[in-house]
Prior knowledge:
The complex is a heterodimer. By secondary structure, chain A is an alpha/beta fold. Chain A contains ten helices and ten strands. In chain A, the strands form two sheets. A six-stranded mixed sheet of chain A has the order 6-7-8-3-9-10, sandwiched between helices. A four-stranded antiparallel sheet of chain A has the order 2-1-4-5, with helices on one face. In chain A, helix 7 (about 200-215) links the parallel strand 7 and strand 8. Chain B is mostly helical. Chain B has helices at about 1-10, 10-30, 40-55, 60-85, 95-115, 145-165, 170-180, 180-185, 190-210, 220-235, 245-265, 270-290, 315, 320-340, 345-370, 380-400, 400-425, 430-445, 450-455, 480-500, 500-510, 515-520, 525-550, 560-575, 580-600, 605-615, 625-640, 655-660; strands at about 135, 140-145, 460, 550-555. Chain B has a two-stranded antiparallel sheet with strand order 1-2. Chain B has a two-stranded antiparallel sheet with strand order 3-4. In chain B, strand 1 (about 135) and strand 2 form a beta hairpin. The radius of gyration of chain B is 26 Å and the shape is globular. Chains A and B meet through helix 2, helix 3, helix 4 and helix 6 of A and helix 20, helix 21, helix 22 and helix 23 of B.
Amino acid sequence: MAESLSAPSGSVGLVPGEPLLSVDGLSKSFGGVLAVANVTFSMAAGESVGLVGPNGAGKTTLFNCISGQLRPNGGTVVFRGEELGHLATFKRARRGIGRTYQRIEVFTEMTVRQHLLVAERSHRGDGRLWKDLLNLSAPRPEEQARVDEVLDLVGLTELADTSVAALGLGLCRLVELARALVGEPSLLMADEPSSGLDVHETRELAKVLRTLQRERGMAVLLVEHDLGMVGEVVDRTVVMDLGQVIAEGTFDEVMADPRVRHAYLGTSR
Amino acid sequence: MTEFLGYGISGVPYGCTYALFAVGLILTYQATGVFNFAFGAQAYLAAFVFTWLTQVQQFPVWAAFVLSVVVLSPALGLIFNRYLFSQIPNNNNMAKVVTGIALFVGIPALLPVFFGTQNLQNAPSILFNINNVYLHVFNTPINGAQLATMVVTAVVLVAMVILLRFTSLGLQMRGAVESRRLVELDGVNAGRVVAVAWAISSFLAGLAGVLLAPLLNQFQANDYATLMVAAFGAAAWGALRSMPIAAGVGILVGVIDALLLGYLPTGSWLFTYVLPSLPFIVLALALLIVPGLRQLGVGTDPLSSVDPPPPPPIRAIRVPIMDRLIRISWYTVLAVFIISMLTWMPRTWENVLNSGLCFATVFLSITLITGMGGQLSLAQGTLAGIGGFTAAQLANHLAINMLAGALLGAFLAAVVAVVLAVLSLRLKGLGLALMTLAAALFFDNSVFNQTSITNGTQGLPLKQSWVAPLDFFNPNGHAMFVLAMVVLTLSVLLVNLVKKGSIGQFLTAMRGSETAAAGIGINLTWQRILVFALSGAVAGIGGVIFTIQQQSGNSNQWAYELSLAFVVIVVTTGVRTPEGAIQGGMGFVITQHLIEVYLPTRLSSLTFVLFAFGALTYAKHPEGILEYQKAKSTMRFQKLLFERDRPGAPPAPEAALAGAPGGPGVDGG
């Protein structure tokens, strides 16, 4: 995976350290199950935050509420100073929220390159019928260049023209990541990106995420069960259990917190 | 009050048949995940055989019942399961719906092939004597057939609720519908569970069929189809889960129908529009209101990722030189076709092929909505009809030339399609298909049968002045061919431009994953509305051209069954490419013409049987059976022409056609 990068455009107008995302009192229930209960946390531009917790803690539900795939029952999500309210998912994406998914979500009839091209165009809200009808929709050189750059970044250049249907789980996760990156988001939400990757690939992925954050000022919100990777990538860690935030601080601080140990390991009798 | 209750009671037996159908539908859906569109056709088949055995072969009622309901119906269910539905991956809901529709179209069309075109009537009642009145309820006499229907419905409802809720078989059925693979991992013989469910539900279809037959004086396949839609509505109100709610709504629909029939003044707009549309209104309202239907038919199998990916389109597996060869062949065929049509083609055949070009244009709308948009619309024939009648009426009343009216017709068809899309925004998969079916039936029963619009059954004859100055009606000229060809070419161009442009890419992304498509900034709502509008406009234009070609607008040309048949035809020939639509249009009219000219009358429905059987292969070959055969031949040809080991040589045919080995979700390790 290459590490040379151009200046990002998704973070234009953002100063590192300035408030980027603010989640306040967010709740989401499914029937009688309170999956996310009154969660409050915030992120600054260019910050890297780990969101960890045991299975069923509500991490992915929280992701879905932030990206607009689920409507919360209460609370607010403010992104770049704007209350997102009932804003549709696609509008949030165009405002700079990119994400990957816990369960693979790829476009099975497309090649890797087509994934990135379609994401590049849709993120800008481009793609008009009249352009299609006038045959003006072929990818432009700058779009191709942007796609090539991201392919190089995540190490998928050699597989660019391969159908994703032929790729294994780990590579599909990289395609998802590249697809999110090509939109140059100011916040990247990665949901268990190392699932399905081997140790070497996980290390490389961690390096990419770190590079994105440090060199490009892209904020990263990382849900991950590989705590080693979390420790390597994030500045700060938020721990959830049973829908609530139970600890927040540096990775070492939260790992030493007895509530976190209890959440992961339970209590000895 | 007694009169009111009396009218209401008279609707209960019909309501009971709706209820019985609804219960059977829910059982199949709960146990197998298949929304059985063929349920009505199965019921009709059983009723037909039962009546034929009793009336023509003079079998005793009990023997005919055993043969048609106890033996034939479950056997058919087992055959459908073994050879069709069990071959479909759990998550491929489109294939399940298309297979059901193929059976819906194919079964009634097959009966005349075996039994001839005889009209059966006076079916006997299975339990009580139809000629005896057994009781009076609010002065309403209840005869044997009506009593039998009510008693059997009550017994079946109780039995089915007990089966699903309180038996281990019922529990296994509910597990199997979620994921057949998962329950097998728990040691359940899922294949057997699903087979039993098919046998029981098909038995119910047969039972409902023979119960309904005596209530209808002269029963026809269409009666069962309309009744099916009422049952769809009842089952939908039960969210395809609750049998008691579905049965209650079914009976209520029967009662309301009877009350409206009793009280509405004949000729009033309510009598004319609302009464015949009641089942479709019930269905549409359920789809709009019941929250459990929004994700209907959207796959939830946690192990779905072990299914192989769909095969790639031929273009993706062809080497460039093959692409060029095929393009040259296409142009050659096209040139030969045009020259032939303009020179030596007999007038009869030119007329047949002209109608094929018109159908191909209508079928292109299915390529757009289903092949590219991934949405199953069962109202494309209706949209074509809207285009055709609009242009004809504009010419009739406002003296607008039909060619100019074609644009307005296409616009109106697009508007109706957009309204449908907006109404269905929250629906996916099966829910959307049902909503479009309800719309098609609504137009069929309430709009297309209005004399002021379609001039009744005799149709609206076109005048030469409506299409002047060109002489499209001259049998010795070629203006009609030129018009149909130009319209088809422009439509193909439009489809191809959209397909390779941004919109096509967005739609491809949406077919892969709507969640991820929204996550990268694609406005799913807008794309869906856009593809509906485009598809409506193309169908509308096709409808106008076909109306001009036929020199009359007739509601029979756009009956809802044809909308279903159109889907079956295009799916058979290939729904993902314009070539599929063209082959579908031409293949349909050529087959129909050959059968009409060379085979006996009773085989006239064979065209639908052939295409229905073709569509049954959809489960295995979602690209269309013709498309699959083309791909196979192409690969064989490539193998002959090129060395396999040469760099860049095409893959072996079998490997290429089977799709890639791994696939997302399959751990490559």
